[in-house]
Amino acid sequence: MKKFMDKNFLLTSKPARKLYHNYAAPMPICDYHCHLTPADIASDKIFSNLTEVWLKGDHYKWRAMRANGVAEKYCTGDASAEDKFKKWAATVPATVKNPLYHWTHMELRRYFGINKLLNPETAAAIYEQASAMLNSRDFSARNLLRKMNVKFLCTTDDPIDDLGYHKQIREEGCDIKVLPTWRPDKLLAVDDSAVYNSYIDKLQAAAGIDIKDYNTLQQAVRKRHDYFEKAGCVISDHGIELPYAAECTAGEAAAAFDAVRSGKELAEKEKLKLRSALMLFFGELNHAKGWVQQIHMGPIRNNNTKMFRRLGPDSGYDSIGDFNLARPLARFLDKLELREALAKTVLYNINPGDNAVLATMIGNFQDGSVPGRMQFGSGWWFLDQKRGIEDQLENLSAQGLLSRFIGMLTDSRSLLSFPRHEYFRRILCNVLGRDMANGEIPADYELVGKMVRNICYYNVVSYLGLKEQ
């Protein structure tokens, strides 16, 4: 019987083990999509305890704790940091077969050298040991990133953000390159005119432009887009339920924006038209600057109205949606292609039933200009676990070029999440190693090993046009 999480964890063949240890493990990390707080990196924050760095903001853990019968005060409430940790520790044994069980123990091992299983009996000692280590400069925000060999990371930022922390990090000459990501989702949030206009007022102040109509809205957005470029941004991100690709004339977009700006509530048809016009506009801006654009599709967010009113978004009440996204996605990409404005694009799905849709969709818009111009993104959110990662790799392999894949990202709010790259790399090497062992691909380590290195690091660095320091 194999020991739990030994050095060959998830590696079930000799070729898999060689691919991982010799080719994948030494590679640096480029985390091109995360939700880390730039302020923590700029200040090189030292965390007061394990709960602060590990449980705060982690809706994956909150969902598991709630499912295990833990009261909300121990998830997002006012319980003490140590009591919250103990409730998480009591939940961990119940997460066996959930990826949280793997991630939890990988993170304890890789950052703190703690090899014990987390449970109620070990909780106090683990909390005390890890918290004491976190109180030292060796475990500051930047040093936590260095421990995982992170060279690049892209945060997620709103168009109104001043990006002052990114500037501070850059001017200090930090060895980890931290770049902003343009995330204009609030510009599409036209369901509530009061909330929308409050945001537009903030955009107006940030851009220094009086936004009185659709034309001045575009001017303000363009100005902020330029501002992000000057701050080093090379990538955008768009989180949507399904692609917006309705026919919309310039006059219809202007009329819809005028209506919502005046405080009127839009009909569903008008919302779709305005969102469609704005997404095309964003796409054109991204292409003009040579940015990569990411499109995350498919979740149903904020399903629990009572808890949304209490806690707000990103608190663990989202789920997989079942939208028909193939036709609108094809229309959206085709509209940009017809305008010669389709940027390098990464498509992510959250419903596993859409894997083959995206794997084949990207082939419709490869144009030979850039290797892997169109990307089927890594397993995301509910799919960033072993089966989800394997399914994404197999679908991409069957329908496209796995060798051009830009690999994994954390999509996380925690500085302790970077072992997810190791998790992905082990699964990748196990898939390829199994095929080598079965004679389905050549037992050529120069060929397959280079492919592994590229997927783990070099492909994405080239794709984003980054330069190593």
Q: What does this protein structure show overall?
A:
By secondary structure, this protein is an alpha/beta fold. The chain has two domains: 48-139, uronate isomerase, domain 2, chain A, CATH 1.10.2020.10; 145-463, TIM Barrel, CATH 3.20.20.140. It has helices at 14-24, 38-42, 50-54, 59-67, 81-91, 99-112, 123-134, 141-147, 164-171, 193-207, 214-230, 250-261, 268-289, 305-311, 326-338, 355-361, 386-399, 419-437, 445-463; strands spanning 29-31, 150-154, 177-179, 235-240, 292-297, 299-300, 319-320, 344-349, 374-376.
Which helices and strands occur, and which strands form pairs?
Layout: H1 14-24, E1 29-31, H2 38-42, H3 50-54, H4 59-67, H5 81-91, H6 99-112, H7 123-134, H8 141-147, E2 150-154, H9 164-171, E3 177-179, H10 193-207, H11 214-230, E4 235-240, H12 250-261, H13 268-289, E5 292-297, E6 299-300, H14 305-311, E7 319-320, H15 326-338, E8 344-349, H16 355-361, E9 374-376, H17 386-399, H18 419-437, H19 445-463
Parallel strand pairs: 1-2, 2-3, 4-5, 5-8, 8-9
Antiparallel strand pairs: 6-7
